[in-house]
Design a protein that fits this description.
The complex is a heterodimer of chains A (about 325) and B (about 900). Chain A has about 325 residues and is an alpha+beta fold. Chain A has ten helices and ten strands. A four-stranded mixed beta sheet of chain A has the order 8-1-10-9. Chain A has a two-stranded antiparallel ribbon with strand order 2-3. The chains are: A alpha+beta (about 325), B alpha/beta (about 900).
Chain lengths: ~325, ~900
Amino acid sequence: MPQFAGPTDPAADARWPDIKPRKGFFTDTSICIGCKACEVACKEWNHNPRDGDLELLESSYDNTGALGASTWRHVAFIEQGRERIEQARESGRTLVDLGMPSVGAPAPDAAAPPSAQSAIPDTPEFRWLISSDVCKHCTHAGCLDVCPTGALFRTEFGTVVVQADVCNGCGTCVAGCPFGVVERRTDGTAAPKAKRGERKGEQPDVPNLGVAQKCTLCYDRLIDDEAPACAKTCPTTSIKFGDREHMVALAKDRVAELHAQGRTEARLYGANELDGVGGTGSVFLLLDEPEVYGLPPDPRVSTADLPRMYKRAGIAAAGMAAAAILAFVGGRR
Amino acid sequence: MANADCIVIQGSNMAECHPVGFQWVEEAKSRGARVIHVDPRFTRTSAIADKHIPIRAGSDVVLLGALINYVLANDLWFKEYVVAYTNAATLVNEDFRDTEELGGLFSGYDPETGHYDPSTWAYAESNGDLPATVHEHGASASARAAGDEHGSGGPSLAHAHVLRDETLQDPRTVFQILKRHYARYTPEMVRDVCGISAGDFAYLARAITENSGRERTTCFAYAVGWTQHTLGAQFIRTAAILQLLLGNVGRPGSGIMALRGHASIQGSTDIPTLFNLLPGYLPMPSAGKHDTFAEYVAAVGTKKQKGFWANSDTYIVSLLKAWWGDTAQADNDWAYDYLPRLTGAHGTYQTVTEMLAGKVEGYFLLGQNPAVGSANGRQQRLGMSHLKWLVVRDLSLIESATWWKDGPEIASGELRTEDIATEVFFLPAASYAEKAGTFTQTQRMLQWRHKALDPPGECQSDLDFFYRLGQRIRAKLAGSTDERDRPLLDMTWDYSAGSRGDADPEAVLAEINGYQRTGPAAGKPLSSYTELRADGSTTAGCWIYTGVYADGVNHAADRVPHGGPLRSQSQWGWAWPANRRILYNRASADPDGKPWSERKKWVWWDEDKDRWVGDDVPDFVADRAPGSRPDPDLGGPAALAGDDPFIMQSDGKGWLFAPKGMVDGPLPTHYEPQESPVTNALYPQQQSPARITFPRTDNLSAPSAGAPGADIYPYVFTTYRLTEHHTAGGMSRWLPYLAELQPEMFCEVSPALAAERGLEPYGWATIISPRAAIEARVLVTDRLTPLVIGGRTVHQIGLPYHWGVGTQAVVSGDAANDLLGVTLDPNVQIQESKAGSCDIRPGRRPRGEQLLRLIADYQTRSGATIATDNVRVTDPAHEIVDPPHEHGKEDGS
């Protein structure tokens, strides 16, 4: 029986006969250098068109803005001062003190003599947060649950993919995603205009106009046992790809390591199976509150409430029925 | 770098400009290394670093000099290493006078030429009949950018006899001279000149010194933030001195990483695209100096000096045999006279001034977009308008191919298309995926690149283009009896393979590697440059690359996962020389041949085998025992003592003090940039006295601090690159996926400067220098910090230089390099592009003729003339020469 909330194996829920280990990303923003190679590799591999109007977006070095129909990896840049850094360090410490995730000592470098570095880093005056966002491939995917055509489906790898040739462009999934990841590819973004009214440079033909588009976790590459394009191209291994279970373990080790170094601002996002989407396939290590990166702090799939809603509706219906019966019964008196 | 315990990135924005190489910094960091970024701006490199230290552009010698002073004053230098492996103990000529005594000049300054006679900087000589070392006058050495020759080793000395005081107490020892020279480079000076607080300086000094010594190593990384200054070569020398004092050369995780600017820029100096070099850092012969083969060989390396440069005759003869085959014989000096001779400086900037003077007829541009990428872009574009013909080979119609119809000078009315007589040819080029060959990267490693697909249409690789051009020229000249055609007709020119008659890149690699010409092994590829001979029995197109094709195997294509079992990862690609991964790695062991520490062991002496062994190819004579003391008179490799790790230096030692080879001083000394809003606080001499200037009305400089009009251009600007674009944009602004990531030209300013000048975030600003005025969108950011220099606030403006004016690219914009003037480092002739003076004001720039008026108005108000900043000796009290210049005396060359 498929579940609507809580920990589960989504591929099993989808009744795949031969379930593969669930795949996912671990995006470690603490080592991201903001090169945007992931954005470019993604567009190259998936033949996604260029986005935007070729003007500065007024958002530091970010000029693609957000995840959308054609930008399936998006790198955010956030400039922060000392006060905000201290707050982040404190809020991260509190999270971990609450017991999640567990903190353990990192493996020491046995060959190294006692280090000259101090354990607790100074709070810097300034920092530049850089983070590569992507579809979360939720355990309980709102987009998938609300899709009326079956265009969105759960793969054997536990990921969520749109079949462009099935999608009718109704847009229900756009509202169904708690992260704002899915978007319909419209003419507006599909044929961007260059300056002076010209469209310059060779572009691939814009495919899949008008239908919902989002990251497929490179389903076509996964089938051939290849890593997704973004993870393959990431020069610093900030984007790691593998079995989701392993990714979560890596993420937990990394956050523990950073906390041991005094960098208590580190925390995980999407690793908690008890959250509103049953945990995500794409796990992130963040250095501040999720809102800072434009991520919802407590994402909740709308369908998670279905059992409760049905239950309430059932009670209400039963009550109505009881009232009606009572009315009849009473009426006979 | 992954083995380093501390990495200082200075003069480089490594994460943005070398994102792939930066994985090794991340690797080091994950192993616990501390990463410090010293840069005018907080960049994506700073975002990952443990600490960012803002610095005023162009003041790096003060910071590094103060670190040297800190190391010396606090006795933190690595004593065993420094005494044994460097020239600290060597005595210097008693006529040498330091900047301390001469107001910022060294002895030997010649105001007539604006260059030094460096003979007083030489090592002290014992009495006797030893041959005298030749010291080329700076004017001549600078004109041929002789510094470039030291890409694979030091300058030549006549012999290897030096006087040493191992106690380092003699005041004439290099060590004592060093101490005196850097005594004035104090933390207070760092605060007042660089704008770095005492706390930040102490942090940096402690990080470096605590992570150096037997157990730990510190690595420096730099890029064009160090090189592109009027004393750029000296910036790097300062770091070299510091690293030698700390024992951070030749050991794992040590050294100074020169981050090269593009794929295979290292390759294009090894096998040069430079006017002054032949392959393997052999100099291009100069007319009047190297007229005969014997003169040339003697100038490159003498038989009496130590080390492998003493064998330079074998490298030269093998090169000539590779180029002219059977024609090159002993009786014609191996066809030495087929080589052209230099008659002066022919760098890109001299060439442009010659164009403007109508002396250049034609110009080839290959993978170069000078209309956007070179300093003083207007000069470049106007220069091209004087050509008869111009060939541009590129992937797209770059601005250098279209300036005649849509360049800034067309818009301003300075040029009219119908008046330009230049015939422009555009030839489409193959991209990197459409051709095979090697890339040589920062660590001297050659990696083979396979061809993925054929180039489309008429696109050709550069190799094919030149191969076929050569074939056509030779066909046209066939049968010629003119002597001057012999070099072309006698040249070996057979690389063809395949049905299309394309040149085979592997055949070129085989020629570069060289082979045995005679004897039973004739035709066999050579495996090491030590096999080269000066008798014509061997060939080698580039001696340092010999071995890349050993046994006929293309080792550049070696790709064993993780590079094989050794820590040096020696089976991934091939590194020159001899597939050595760390240069001068003899220094990774102590004078007795034992590793300095277990943690940092790399190469050591094996008593049982009587050989050097380890994780890497030992960079030493393989069986020379650590205690060997051969007679220096033997010369060459045979003269290397067991503790002479610097086998390409003519005395076997690392040079703290350069007795030869630098034209602007034996020790790095701080001078301000050509134009600077700051007075030199260390010496009365404002700018580097030996810099190369171009006093021209189209190359005016902003008045420096103290001069009237200095407040007209009050701000410092520095240019740089972004990850999203490639240099002048030819490979990125035409690609939609890259263009959208950074679509518009912008400038970066601090909130304080924005308030001072009324600049709106993401609004427009106009930036004006004495050369040009450009417009840019404004990024107001805390990533730029106003610095307090000598009690007054100095603002710095950051300008990426990727955009250019044209109509062909997906995105275009004003070119930052138009703002730059042309003033060069005298050692290597690189332009100063990392520090200039400008003004900034809100709003877009005027259009058309109005723009020229704005620039002229600023020039007039500042009073800038061609004399501005071009006075060589700025302190009248020191306009003397010491020792007195003897007129008529030979310059020693």
